[in-house]
Please model this.
Amino acid sequence: MARPVHFELCADSPERAAAFYGEVFGWEVHKWDGEYDYWLLLTGDDDEPGINGGIVHRDDSVAGTANIVHVPSLDLALMRVQDAGGTVIHARQTLAGVGYLAYCRDTEGNAFGLMERDDTAA
Model:
């Protein structure tokens, strides 16, 4: 069964948002050392319930605030989304060393992401 594994928040000022969530919830924030401007949110210890997230600049977001769901096959999941009446709003992209990601909308207009993890993605 596919489960949410990550969330993304949009912000006009990611630095300001990072400071806010750090102060309010005590979340740790680290700028990602990847190909995009992205701030990782560590929301707790891995042995505790919950998921970690990230902050993306609103201008760079393709979906707005969204939950990211892990799937074993991104291509199969994208076909299932469309067969069920959803739409793909941002096609498959490769995140080097992370995996493959796409964004969709459900039948009610809610955005969500799909992630196929693959540490060898390049």
Summary: The chain has a mean pLDDT of 92. Strands lie at 3-11, 28-31, 39-42, 52-57, 66-70, 87-95, 99-105, 111-117.
